[in-house]
């Protein structure tokens, strides 16, 4: 009888430990999924303009003009000619290189991107292991 009770207590301890490991794994995975979904949401809102569709054309035009003005001011401060006979190249540069502030990736975005990459890499490894 003593042996059976000790065995039952040990088996219950093992069961509790297994539940604890399972819960920890689920929490880790849910945290990674939450971070990835948060990254997607932040990335989606970063790419959108602040204004609704009829006004976003005005916003893009204002952004291009502001970028052009700041570029001219930087060249003026550095004593470089503004146009150098290359007006079309400057305009194409303004269109290609939109405002630097819009496309800067912050440290938090880099971290969330790394988390998302790790999440998908781990998920693909798990899927490949399950197929084998």
Structure in words:
Helix content is 83%, strand content 0%. It has 132 residues and is an all-alpha fold. It has one domain (2-131). The chain is rod-shaped, with a radius of gyration of 28 Å. Residues 86-92 and 94-102 have low confidence and may be disordered.
List SSEs in N-to-C order: HHHHH
Question: What's the domain count?
Answer: 1
Question: Which band does the percent of strand residues land in?
Answer: under 5%
How many beta-strand elements? Answer: 0
Mean pLDDT: 78
Shape, please? Answer: rod-shaped
What ranges have pLDDT less than 50 throughout 5 or more consecutive residues? 86-92, 94-102
Task: Give the termini distance in whole angstroms.
Answer: 44 Å
Task: Provide a quick synopsis of the model.
The protein is 83% helix and 0% strand. It has 5 helices and no strands.
Q: Key features?
A:
132 residues, mainly alpha, 5 helices, rod-shaped
Any chance you could write out the topology, listing elements then pairs?
Blueprint: H1 2-47, H2 53-77, H3 87-96, H4 100-103, H5 107-131
Helix pairs in contact: 1-5, 2-3
């Amino acid at each position: 009888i003593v042996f059976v009770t000790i065995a039952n207590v040990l088996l219950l301890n093992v069961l509790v430990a297994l539940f604890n490991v399972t819960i920890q794994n689920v929490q880790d995975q849910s945290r990674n999924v939450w971070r990835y979904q948060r990254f997607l949401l932040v990335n989606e809102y970063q790419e959108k303009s602040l204004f609704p569709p009829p006004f976003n054309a005005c916003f893009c035009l204002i952004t291009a003009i502001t970028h052009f003005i700041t570029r001219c001011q930087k060249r003026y401060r550095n004593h470089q000619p503004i146009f150098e006979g290359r007006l079309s190249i400057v305009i194409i540069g303004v269109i290609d290189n939109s405002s630097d502030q819009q496309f800067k990736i912050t440290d938090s975005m880099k971290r969330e991107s790394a988390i998302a990459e790790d999440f998908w890499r781990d998920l693909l490894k798990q899927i490949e292991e399950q197929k084998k």
